[in-house]
Structure formats: structure tokens, C-alpha cells
Design a protein that fits this description.
Length: 329
């Protein structure tokens, strides 16, 4: 028998509404489904393991208040040996007690395009009484589905939404970025989540940059962290580095190229792109013009790919570019 819809009346909306129940304020809330996106090597898994240890311990994460809660990591990518080592290193890095309410499963092969597996995940969450759930990674829990297809993406997130609402938990799913530094797959992904958090970090750099690209309950903002890797000890620490960091890898490449090569033709900027596609570099040039970081300098002669661009001769702009280059080196 079909479920009868619950109809609410306008007067109900005027009543005092319950506050948002944050697990990490103002990012992850009870009933929310979030996506954290980054390229390989961007340390997004370490970041969320660090967040899980902080929530399980009741300590702030990167200066943001957390509410102590049971946590569960559903790992379909790393495997038990690798994930156990990472969790242990982070626990030691935070001097966390051995009995914190943190649990994890590895390679159970859950397929969230199937409601039966969704029910299994729901049962696991209620069994562990977990409220902060991390799933690594999206592609691994929608095996056989096409992440570029709306009809394949929507059922997976409908299941995740049902679990988050029914189990009264916060679900954070790890997802991979494409070579242009944006999320892979259908635009339905962005529409399906309450919060999309982009991460960027070079494999050989301790700096991680976070940018809230989409949020339903807060205004987007950026923040950053430094990862400390010591023997058997790993932890994240809030960083004051360039809070205005909102540049994509392609935009950063263009600024770096013009810093080292000076006035250049668009075709050369695109042809030498090594951190993004040629198309991504061209789009970045146009975006940076609108953002007043660079300017077109051949108003009379350049056409299309022959157009020439250079950094705006502005000390404030150059100071930001220098700062970005220093922290990314």
C-alpha cells in the first residue's frame, strides 16, 4: 500500500522551529548529506578521518565546534590495513583515548543504488548508534552506475537522504575531482547534497585548502589547514593561510604562467597547461579577466587564440598572487 503523504499547513511554519543540530558547526548537521571533493593526493580522506576522531572525542575540528557523537567510516576504497593505520596515526596525533566511539567497516561492497543495501547501511548505523557517517568513496558505492547520468545518480542520493533522515545522522561522502579540479559526474550531484566542500592540496605540500562551493544552511566560505605527518602521528591544524583562496587549479596555473612568462598569447597559455586541460586554461583566462586579476592587452590586434593577456599592474593583486605561489610551493 502506498504511503499517504503528510500535509502541513501554513500556520506550522510560523511556529518556533528547532535549531540546526550541528556535529561540526557550521559544516555537517544531523539529517544532512554532504560531498567532499578533491583530486587524488588532496588528503581528503585524512581530513575526514581527522574530523571523525575529533567528533568521537568531542574536540573542535580546525577551530570549528563539534558535538561529541559516535562515528562510523564506511570504507570501500582503502581496505582494512591502510585505513586502520590511518585511523591509528590520527588518534595518536590527537592523543585520543582508545575507547572513543569510532567504528569502521572495510570493503563490504555496499551498493546504494539498491534499496536493500541501503537498508543494510541503515541497520549498521542504528546498530553502532553512529551519527557522523563517512563514506569513501561515491564511485565505490554505486558500482555499475554511471556518475554522469542523472537517472543513476538520483536514486543513490535518494537512499542517502532517506538514511540520513531516518537514522538522524550526518552523512559525508568522499568524491573525486576531475583534472580541472571540479567534481566528476552529473550536475545532479551538486543539486542532491546539502553541502559540497571542495579540497585542494598538492601531494608534496602539507597545506589543504577547503572551499564551501554549495550550502543550503550557511553562506559559502573558505578555510585552510596544515597536515602534520610524524612517525605514527598525524593531525590537522587550522591555518591562517589566504582565507580568500577561491581560485581553481586552472586559474592558479594561468596566474603562475603569466607571473613567470609575462605578457602571453592565449594560444600559448592554453598549449602549455600542465595542471588542467587547454579548454580549462582558456576558461580560466576569461574568468580571471572578470575577477580583475589579469587584463587583455592587445585591444586592437588580437583575435581569438591570438589575443594577449598579462597580469594587472596592481600591487594588491600581485601581493595576493605572490602569497598564493608561496603557500602552494
Amino acid at each position: 500500500m502506498a504511503r499517504t503523504p503528510v500535509i502541513h499547513i501554513a500556520a506550522e511554519a510560523l511556529k518556533p522551529q528547532p535549531p540546526i543540530e550541528w556535529l561540526i558547526e557550521p559544516l555537517f548537521s544531523i539529517g544532512g548529506v554532504s560531498l567532499i571533493v578533491g583530486e587524488g593526493g588532496s588528503k581528503k580522506t585524512y581530513a575526514l578521518v581527522d574530523a571523525a576522531v575529533c567528533v568521537a572525542s568531542g574536540e573542535p575540528w580546525l577551530g570549528m565546534r563539534s558535538t561529541r557523537a559516535s562515528t562510523l567510516i564506511i570504507d570501500e576504497e582503502s581496505g582494512e590495513r591502510r585505513l586502520s593505520r590511518r585511523i591509528g596515526d590520527v588518534m595518536r596525533g590527537h592523543q585520543a583515548a582508545s575507547d572513543i566511539p569510532l567504528q569502521y567497516t572495510c570493503l563490504e561492497r555496499f551498493s546504494l543504488k539498491d534499496m536493500k543495501d541501503g537498508a543494510r547501511v541503515y541497520s549498521l548505523i542504528t546498530q553502532t548508534k553512529a551519527q557522523f557517517i563517512i563514506i569513501d568513496a561515491l564511485a565505490d558505492v554505486m558500482l555499475g552506475a554511471d556518475e554522469n547520468s542523472v537517472k543513476d545518480v538520483q536514486p543513490v542520493f535518494a537512499v542517502l537522504r532517506w538514511i540520513a533522515d531516518s537514522a538522524k545522522c550526518s552523512i559525508v561522502v568522499i568524491h573525486h575531482a576531475n583534472k580541472n579540479g571540479i567534481y566528476r559526474g552529473s550536475t545532479a550531484l551538486k543539486g542532491a547534497v546539502d553541502l559540497m566542500l571542495m579540497t585542494e592540496s598538492k601531494p608534496d605540500s602539507p597545506n589543504i585548502y577547503f572551499n564551501v562551493e554549495k550550502a543550503r544552511d550557511i553562506d559559502p566560505f573558505s578555510f585552510s589547514a596544515t597536515v602534520h605527518f610524524e612517525p605514527d602521528h598525524v593531525w590537522l591544524e587550522a591555518s591562517a593561510a589566504v582565507q580568500a583562496r577561491r581560485l581553481s587549479p586552472a586559474q592558479h596555473y594561468v596566474l603562475d604562467y603569466l607571473t613567470h612568462n609575462g605578457r602571453s598569447m592565449l594560444k600559448d597559455i592554453a598549449a602549455n597547461a600542465d595542471r588542467c586541460s587547454a579548454a580549462g586554461a582558456r576558461k580560466a583566462v576569461y574568468d580571471l579577466v572578470r575577477m580583475n586579476y589579469i587584463e587583455r592587452v592587445d585591444h586592437a590586434n588580437g583575435r581569438g587564440s591570438l589575443a594577449e593577456y598579462d597580469l594587472i599592474n596592481d600591487s594588491a593583486v600581485k601581493s595576493v598572487i605572490d602569497q598564493l605561489n608561496n603557500i602552494m610551493s
